[in-house]
Design goal:
The complex is a heterotetramer, with two copies of chain A (83 residues) and two copies of chain C (155 residues). Chain A has 83 residues and is of the alpha+beta class. In chain A, 25% of the residues lie in helices and 23% in strands. Chain A has one domain: Beta-grasp domain (Ubiquitin-like (UB roll)), CATH 3.10.20. Chain A has three helices and five strands; from the N terminus they run E-H-E-H-H-E-E-E. In chain A, strand 3 and strand 4 form a beta hairpin. The N and C termini of chain A lie far apart (30 Å). Chain C has one domain: Aldehyde Oxidoreductase, domain 3 (Alpha-Beta Complex). In chain C, strand 9 and strand 10 form a beta hairpin. In chain C, helix 2 packs antiparallel against helix 3 and helix 3 packs across helix 4. Chains C and D meet through helix 1, strand 2 and helix 3 of C and helix 1, strand 2 and helix 3 of D. Strand 2 of chain C pairs antiparallel with strand 2 of chain D, so a sheet runs across the interface. Chains C, D: It comes from Pacificispira spongiicola.
Amino acid sequence: MKVLYFAWLRQKIGMGEETVDPPTGVETAGQLVDWLKTRGPGYEAAFKDARAVKIAVNQAFGTRDTPIAANDEVAFFPPVTGG
Amino acid sequence: MKVLYFAWLRQKIGMGEETVDPPTGVETAGQLVDWLKTRGPGYEAAFKDARAVKIAVNQAFGTRDTPIAANDEVAFFPPVTGG
Amino acid sequence: MTVRVQQEDFDIGAELSALTDGNTGIGGLCSFTGLVRDMNDGSGVGAMTLEHYPGMTERMLEEIEEEAHRRWPLDATLIIHRYGRMEPGDRIVMVAAASAHRQAAFDACNFLMDWLKTKAPFWKAEELPGGETRWVEARDSDEHAADRWREENEV
Amino acid sequence: MTVRVQQEDFDIGAELSALTDGNTGIGGLCSFTGLVRDMNDGSGVGAMTLEHYPGMTERMLEEIEEEAHRRWPLDATLIIHRYGRMEPGDRIVMVAAASAHRQAAFDACNFLMDWLKTKAPFWKAEELPGGETRWVEARDSDEHAADRWREENEV
């Protein structure tokens, strides 16, 4: 599963992209967040305020309840500020 | 007094501008219209539907009640259609 | 604040650059350009001629521009309106408003066009395919669009 | 319908001409350009860097454009958004909408900007005078502006 981080999430985690293989039971974007938070203090800091983090699954906006599977691209980022 | 006509008023009257010397008692734009209508069939045709004619006195929108004086510039034209 | 009434065409990009260059307080720039359409009320239009009232035109456009600056926090505005003969696809008019704030630029630009449509002394005569000309009639929808911006204390 | 995401600056006049040339059914063209301001929330900003999510950005901009065409009778639309480092006065984004009808062009252009502001995955980092950078925070006012265009049957 490809996971992407943008803006301050990228800075806190220390990379923009990684491939992960979460354990059985991680079936939604929210469960992926909970698992990622166990992987180190950078992840914990990035996901500390869950409401501040937006989720996209396969380049479409999702929520913590959006199902995820092995070949998906899951992205985490702050509220957007372009334009 | 300088009087200007635009668009179809100009065409009906047959000129765009003239200097007139209306008789005593012509003290408003509406009275000027009534007097102009006596000057020939072109004027009568141009001012037939009074509601269709807009009035400007000294390049500012006015009404039939706007006072006019000898040195004023009075213009008559249809509703505007620019832009 | 700039108002120009001219026969010549204009260059939108150059006008917009001139409006904003050197002012880094501007966050948003909205512009509107009106073009000659080849259809109006169902009959094909070959070309049109725009007549105006020199002197009063500039006065009214300046008043409309001042009113926009009174209502919104604007850094710059521009109105260019052409007169004379124009063909389908030709630019007739452009208005633009620049502000620190996006919605002020949009609203002021929309206001400039709506008020110009009912207050600036221009008249369009269309050339019909047969060679005749026809004076374009004013539209109620333009009056209603302008009325949206009327303030409560206005008559 | 055109969407472009690029590092390079763009030429507003050339883009608008390309959008309308040859289509004489267009009566009105509205455009909005967003520029880097030198002030944001009271502290002077030297420059900023825009990060985005390649792939999703284009998808979201195309969806927003399609939505505009669904809602208004539009002849042409354009969205160009830059990424990378920009300085005060630089153009960041332009959107444009062309229609037979003036208000459709205005409303669609306003809609494109409001939705882009909350739905397109871009993030601004400002360079502060001291050399630090700061991620720009999303504004409630942008959410409210986008909500104006939400339809009743949407969640």
